[in-house]
Amino acid sequence: MSRYQELTTLDQWAQVYEASRQQPTLVFKHSTTCPISANAHREFERYLETAPEGTAYVLVKVIESRPVSNQIAQDLGVVHQSPQAILIRDGQPVWHASHWDITAARLREAVEGASAADAQG
């Protein structure tokens, strides 16, 4: 079972962002006060139960760690939404989804697509 790292500081984000140039990274931005985000978080957890190795998984609580959430939006050029999932490959966002579009199946499809592209690359 793959686990995630919770990002709470800008330094942690900077390290994860740099590492995403070497390893695909799935960022999940979560609002702890939103029922839609609670559902997306359950889907993220469900996905992680069988998630493949070789991808880094991180979580940002957008209220508690707003500076980190804002920096992610700025660095990636992806307008902030919550909940939001962003897949980063080679330091660039290659897929993102928000709200009810975040499902275990969609996360799996996105990550497997990035892994297939890496295998071909």
Automatic annotation (TrEMBL):
The UniProt entry, under SUPFAM superfamilies, shows: Thioredoxin-like (SSF52833)
Question: What InterPro entries does the record tag this protein with?
Answer: BrxC, Thioredoxin-like_sf
Coiled coil stretches, renumbered:
none
Under the heading NCBIfam families, the entry gives:
B_thiol_YtxJ
Name used for this protein in its record: Bacillithiol system protein YtxJ
What organism is the protein native to? Alicyclobacillus macrosporangiidus
